[in-house]
Amino acid sequence: MAEVEMVIDSLRRSPVNRQWVVVLKEKLAERYLPVYIGSSQADAIKRELTDVSPSKPLARNLVSGGIDAVYSEVKAVKLDKFDNNVFSAKLVIAALGKSHEVDCPPADALTIAAGMNAPIFTDEIILSKAGISVCA
Question: pTM of the prediction?
Answer without folding.
Answer: 0.85
